[in-house]
Amino acid sequence: MITPLDHLVPAEIRDTLVALRRDLHAHPELAFAETRTAAALERALQPLQPVSMMRVAGTGIVARIRGRTPGLPIVAVRGDIDALPIQEATGLPFSSANPGVMHACGHDVHAAWAVGAAHLLAANPAEGDVLVVLQPAEETGEGATAMLASGVLDDVAAIFGAHVDRRFVVGEVVAQAGPLAASADSFEIVVNGRGAHGARPHESADPVVCAAAIIGALQTIVSRRVNPATPAVVTVASVHAGSAANVIPAQATLGGTLRAVDPETRTLLAAEMRRIVEGIASAHGLAASVTFTPGPPPIVNPAGPAAWARTAVHSLLGTQAVVPLGITNMAGEDFAYYMERIPGCFMRIGARLANEPVIPAHTAQFHAAEGSLFVGAAVLAETARVASAVLAKG
Ligand SMILES: [Zn+2]
Ligand SMILES: [Zn+2]
């Protein structure tokens, strides 16, 4: 396939990346089970003779690509590698051969980007060494913390990553300061009452009616408690109670997700939820508890590293290639865990041809246009070079 963007990556590396991406796409593996994937990625990196290459967090890989000058600050580029439990329906010739598992979030492309960046940096090194980080288990929100816990990123001075995005066409890149992804915390609410015959509600402490009141009242958090200028989401996504039409159950459970793009709102959502749940339960004469499971924090790109990324995109693709995100992304992304500890920038890379439909990620039809492979690889490599050059000056 030839696109006007092919100049970004030399022909022989393009062929390698296309073959690698198609192979990964055809053999998707779920979080922390990416064994075939990791082996394929190691094989793709080995010919570059990295300074070092190690397995981290089971199916993760960190390869160190030599820079021009030893001893300078280290920059990292990260690609995530896991797939989703979805039955593929793209009709692609390299569709998933693994029933019920699919690269529906483009991590096949992200993994190939990181390998592509490694090839480009081996051919044209950054000032300092660059760590190529291939991370498992993004979809479960566990992979980045596992990579960080290993300590291999302790000396990294800046980290960069990106996600394919079919709202943008191939060649467009979002590289801006500010919020790029939301926090994604989950909650479970347990309402404990007293069961009774369905015909005798006065003998019960009915958790179903209480749960319904809680669901309604939770809608006031975003509408009445959060500053209208601040994005936030409270979604009750699961409701479970009862098993028969004539039995009032003793317990109801609700589950869902909280999203915010700043730490203050994130804290407010949880505190308000707890206050409302306990207050409504008390008003109904029942007891309720809330358990929060923290997910990734928001991604808020700092201005400096975002500017380095833009400099890279400008030099590769021209100034018109940098486009605004244009929305507030309320999805979570576990790259945020790196950015809690390491300055960096998370980008969105256009992945749709101009005549194609948008197609949301996490659906059976999702796939990234092949040209996005070369854009992502080149942008990550060049961003690493720009960052490394700036950091080398101290
Ligand atoms: Zn995803
Ligand atoms: Zn993803």
Quick description:
With 394 residues, this protein is of the alpha+beta class.
Which short descriptors sum up this protein?
alpha+beta, 7-stranded mixed β-sheet, binds zinc ion, 394 residues, 4-stranded antiparallel β-sheet, 34% helix, 15 strands
Using the alpha-carbon principal axes, give the shape.
elongated
Oligomerization: single chain
**Number of distinct helices:** 9
Share of residues in helices: 25-40%
Number of strands: 15
Taking pLDDT < 50 over at least 5 consecutive residues as the criterion, the unreliable ranges are none
Radius of gyration: 23 Å
Order of helices and strands: HHEEEHEHEEEEEHEEEHEEHHEH
Strand arrangement, largest sheet? 1-2-4-3-5-15-6
The average pLDDT value, as a whole number, equals 97
Verbal overview:
The chain has 394 residues and is an alpha+beta fold. Helices cover 34% and strands 25% of the residues. A 7-stranded mixed β-sheet has the order 1-2-4-3-5-15-6, with helices on both faces. Strands 10-12-8-13 form a 4-stranded antiparallel β-sheet, covered by helices on one side. Helix 3 links the parallel strand 3 and strand 4. Helix 1 runs antiparallel to helix 3, helix 3 crosses helix 9 and helix 5 packs antiparallel against helix 6. It starts with 10 loop residues before the first helix and ends with a helix. It binds zinc ion (2 copies). One zinc ion binds next to loops.
How do the helices and strands line up, and which of them pair or pack?
Layout: H1 11-26, H2 35-45, E1 52-56, E2 60-65, E3 74-80, H3 107-123, E4 130-135, H4 143-149, E5 156-169, E6 173-174, E7 178-181, E8 183-192, E9 196-197, H5 207-225, E10 232-241, E11 247-248, E12 251-260, H6 263-283, E13 287-293, E14 299-301, H7 303-317, H8 335-341, E15 344-352, H9 371-392
Parallel strand pairs: 3-4, 3-5, 5-15
Antiparallel strand pairs: 1-2, 2-4, 6-15, 7-14, 8-12, 8-13, 9-11, 10-12
Helix pairs in contact: 1-3, 3-9, 5-6, 7-9
The chain binds zinc ion (2 copies).
Residues 105, 107, 138, 163 line the site of one zinc ion.
